[in-house]
Amino acid sequence: MQFQRLIRVAILDERPIVRAGMFACLLPEQDMEIIADAASLHAFISAEGRREPDVIVLGQLSHPEIPEAIKVAQDIWPKVQVVVLAVAGGNVRARRAISAGASGFVLQTSGTDEFAMAVRAAHAGRRYFDCVTALEFVEDGTQHLRAKEVEVLRRVAAGKGNKQIAEELTTTEGTVKNYIFRILEKLDAQDRTHAVVIAAERGYLSL
Question: End-to-end CA distance of the chain, in Å?
Fold first, then answer.
């Protein structure tokens, strides 16, 4: 019978309690071996005697942020797969993670079985989304905001008026009004405040 090597998993999150939770979730899995439990990507990379991971689980990191952390990790280990464990959902966040090179996206509210399934799927080269995020992808019939529209909405969220936004973006108030009209239309929002709330829920903004 051929020996099957355990999946080497590295857990990275700046919150000790969350790392402990992830560790406890994966420890009973007989096909996995947790080779690292670190507060940052730098701490893992610089650790003495570190081993090459098959799958890295990325939780909350201040520096570098998740997209950059994925790039750095895959530059070092080209074959490594990444699963993002997110505190908040929204298919925009999931799209960003996948675009950056992640194989999986799982909410912290997911069950332990789903978390383990995400790690296995990533190791096998498959993409994996938790049930809530997958459903959002299926039901998403809205138009997505463009980069400039997100810039405008970020300033709206900061409480800035059209004149100030126009000055900061070196454009006219009329152009800003057009941007906001399109934003409200795309998000099916009732007003500016409602648009900010919807955008935050979908991952366009971090409030």
Answer: 53
Distance, in Å, from the CA atom of 205 to the CA atom of 136, rounded to the nearest integer, reads 17
CA 119 to chain centre: 15
Cβ–Cβ < 8 Å for 45, 38: no
How far is 126 from 42, CA to CA, in rounded Å? Answer: 27
Which positions ≥6 away from 80 have C-beta within 8 Å? 52, 53, 54, 55, 56, 73, 74
pLDDT reported for residue 146: 82
Domains of the chain: 7-139 (3.40.50.2300), 147-202 (1.10.10.10)
Mean pLDDT of 4-28: 94
